[in-house]
């Protein structure tokens, strides 16, 4: 039995993340992101919103996060009507299981008391007219810092819960987001590369740092059907022409320098990709975020010489002419780039919005029914305050959205011997 379990774990790591064939999100959708304290950290949820505002925007999309510390699937089921439905979501993502595993080895009782409320969540949202549900698996615990149980044992429990999520998604015709498998894979690769002291997940072994949250965002964005085609700029040095895909407007092309006005941003990272700090940049080499979700391509034809220097923003890099003819991904090659400053401003505005949502949902909306029972003569006033809170949240979302302004930047190509 133990060997079979190990084999199943290995096969799970080999399996690639399931990808929804068509984009899940449609114009004017309301996306609700739900989960436990890992969701309430507001890191992967902010990364998702950043991406959906700047990188592959959907017209009229609204995004709200509903994380709640220590929550299990059953707890979320009980608060759907009070906390989530007032926002009228059309698409929901879930990420439960870390607490549902009860921090012990997997058994049938644990499986049953996870499967039932997860199915209940599906039934509730379907009854309320939610168009699509993305069932996300739990992530993993850190193989070095998790102390409540042997890390391998609890990761086997979490993998068992992952299998239940996959089963429910297939049974109900829903989208499945495998969070567990890529987190396990990236953690193993990062620890092998950076050494035994590298911490992929926080000090408690449960709550990820930014590196782990980037992997979580990747899993959900892939499940939502994001295709990663941010933009392509094609330069023909011989013909003295440059073109860009939608969202990448060529303003001018003079002496090998392309001036662009861009309304679609590449996803921007923090940190050094060659250092072991827990940053988004530090784990890019261990999974295909840039290949799958962040392709900002430069194609250069007509280079006279074996290579060329490309200057984008403040930095320059040299590339073989053959590689430039095939296309290089500027988002992967230039961690700091002309989009970084504005990207960070949008990110800060998104964090402010999601911080309000935690307070609004947990301290007010969740208690509206009880307040009305306690103060039946003040029902109108209670509704007015709830409406005002939701309006402020919508305004903060709009403020973040309005910061996604066109970025004017240049790409200079200089042929080298």
Fold and architecture overview:
By secondary structure, this protein is an alpha/beta fold. The protein has a domain at 2-223: Rossmann fold (3-Layer(aba) Sandwich), CATH 3.40.50. The chain has helices at residues 2-14, 37-40, 44-55, 73-84, 108-127, 151-172, 180-194, 210-223, 289-293, 321-326, 330-333, 340-364, 368-374, 379-402; strands at 30-35, 62-67, 91-95, 132-136, 175-177, 229-236, 241-244, 248-254, 257-262, 295-301, 307-312, 315-320, 328-329, 407-416. The chain has a 5-stranded parallel sheet, sandwiched between helices. Strands 8-9-14-11-12 form a 5-stranded antiparallel sheet. Helix 3 crosses helix 8 and helix 3 packs across helix 12. The longest helix has 25 residues, at 340-364. The model is unreliable at 1-17 (pLDDT under 50).
């Amino acid at each position: 039995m133990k060997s079979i379990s190990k084999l199943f774990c290995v096969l799970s790591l080999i399996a690639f993340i399931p990808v929804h064939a068509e984009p899940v999100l449609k114009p004017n959708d309301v996306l609700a992101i739900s989960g436990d304290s890992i969701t309430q950290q507001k890191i992967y949820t902010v990364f998702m919103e950043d991406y959906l505002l700047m990188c592959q925007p959907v017209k009229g999309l609204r995004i709200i996060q509903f994380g709640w510390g220590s929550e299990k699937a059953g707890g979320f089921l009980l608060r759907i009507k009070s906390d989530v439905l007032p926002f009228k979501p059309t698409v929901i993502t879930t990420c439960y299981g870390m607490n549902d595993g009860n921090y012990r080895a997997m058994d049938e009782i644990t499986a049953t008391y996870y499967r039932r409320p997860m199915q209940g969540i599906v039934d509730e949202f379907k009854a309320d007219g939610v168009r699509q549900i993305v069932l996300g698996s739990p992530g993993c615990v850190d193989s070095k810092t998790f102390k409540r149980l042997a890390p391998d044992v609890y990761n086997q429990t979490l993998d068992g819960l992952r299998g239940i999520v996959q089963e429910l998604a297939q049974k109900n015709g829903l989208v499945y987001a495998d969070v567990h498998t890529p987190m396990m894979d990236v953690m193993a690769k990062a620890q092998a590369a950076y050494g035994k002291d590298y911490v992929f997940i926080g000090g408690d072994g449960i709550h990820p740092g930014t590196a782990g949250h980037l992997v979580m965002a990747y899993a959900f964005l892939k499940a939502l059907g994001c295709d990663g085609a941010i933009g392509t700029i094609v330069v023909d040095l011989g013909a003295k022409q440059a073109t860009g895909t939608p969202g990448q407007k060529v303003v001018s092309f003079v002496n090998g320098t392309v001036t662009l006005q861009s309304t679609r941003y590449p996803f921007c990272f923090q940190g050094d990709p060659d250092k072991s700090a827990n940053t988004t940049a530090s784990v890019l080499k261990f999974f295909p975020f840039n290949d799958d979700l962040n392709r900002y391509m430069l194609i250069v034809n007509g280079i006279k010489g074996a290579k060329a220097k490309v200057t984008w923003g403040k930095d320059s890099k040299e590339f073989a002419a053959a590689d430039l003819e095939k296309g290089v991904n500027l988002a992967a090659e230039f961690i700091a780039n002309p989009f970084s400053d504005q990207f960070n401003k949008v990110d800060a505005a998104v964090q402010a919005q999601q911080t309000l949502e935690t307070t609004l949902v947990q301290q007010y909306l969740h208690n509206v029914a009880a307040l009305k029972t306690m103060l039946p003569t003040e029902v109108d006033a209670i509704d007015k305050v709830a409406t005002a809170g939701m309006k402020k949240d919508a305004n903060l979302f709009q403020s973040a959205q309005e910061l996604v302004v066109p970025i004017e930047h240049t790409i200079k190509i200089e042929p080298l011997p």
